Amino acid sequence: MKYLILNSGSSSLKFQLINAQDETLVAKGIVEKIGSSNAILKYKAFDKNEIREVLKVKNHDYALELILKNLTDSVRGVIKDISQIDAVGHRVVHGGEYFSNSVIINEEVINKIKECSIFAPLHNPPNLMGIESCKSILPNVQQVAVFDTAFHQQIPSVAYLYGLPYAIYEKLKIRRYGFHGTSHSYVSTQALKILSDLNDLNEKNHGDRNIITCHLGNGASVAAIVSVRQLML
């Protein structure tokens, strides 16, 4: 089984094709400057040199078609046709209080993502562009939304409520939501695995560790995670 993973931005579409059986990377790349005549495609299959092309890409639909064309190309491609794509995963920035886990995308989920655009106006609308493009071009492929905020739904109210009148939270849902949750979840569980390898695996309560994780990139965030072993269960 192969999964296409998409991260759709306002003028970009990042992608990876993953072999689900062993979680290996099959191909990856990005289409940048979508909506311009000098858009950039970067495409790298796992055993080939990276390809870089400058071309006109008018919208996200065209960008997705370009990605699929390269993935199925007779020379540079890694699959025979798009029927070999078993599912599409989307990174979605904001799920509000609606989503504490990844979910299969349907119309109700799409509407909730739209509602949460008020909290992430620069991110959720482009994320929806990627979802809508897949609905159009890959109508028979199941789609899943993975939310940056989902991991942080475990935060207690004492930590997520701001020092503002409670009515503002009740009416407008203004609170701390937390971001880069997929990164913090992965980093914390990997840190526990590495620590387990370095220490006695039979040590009592070995997994009850408190960890601080840092996500450092174009955006940066820090998370304090209590008893990280709970993430492994």
List segments where confidence is low: pLDDT < 50 over at least 5 consecutive residues. none
Number of helices: 6
Mass-distribution shape: globular
Strand residue percentage: 25-35%
The chain-level mean pLDDT equals: 92
Query: Spatial order of the strands in the main sheet?
Result: 5-4-3-2-1-6-8-7
Kindly report how far apart the N and C termini lie.
Answer: 25 Å
Give the SSE string: EEEEEHEEHHEHHHEE
The major sheet is characterized as: 8 strands, mixed
Keywords for this entry:
233 residues, alpha+beta, Nucleotidyltransferase, domain 5, 2 domains, eight-stranded mixed beta sheet, 27% helix, globular
Explain what the structure shows.
The model has no long low-confidence stretch (mean pLDDT 92). The radius of gyration is 20 Å and the shape is globular. The chain has an eight-stranded mixed sheet. It has a two-stranded antiparallel sheet with strand order 9-10. 27% of the residues are buried. The chain is an alpha+beta fold and 233 residues long. α1 (60-71) packs across α3 (124-137). The chain has two domains: 1-151, ATPase, nucleotide binding domain (Nucleotidyltransferase, domain 5, 2-Layer Sandwich), CATH 3.30.420.40; 181-232, no CATH class. The chain is built from six helices and ten strands, in the order βββββαββααβαααββ. It starts with a strand and ends in an 8-residue tail after the last strand. A hairpin with a 3-residue loop joins β3 and β4. The protein has helices at residues 60-71, 107-115, 124-137, 157-160, 166-172, 181-198; strands at residues 2-8, 12-19, 24-32, 36-45, 51-57, 85-92, 103-104, 142-147, 211-216, 220-225.
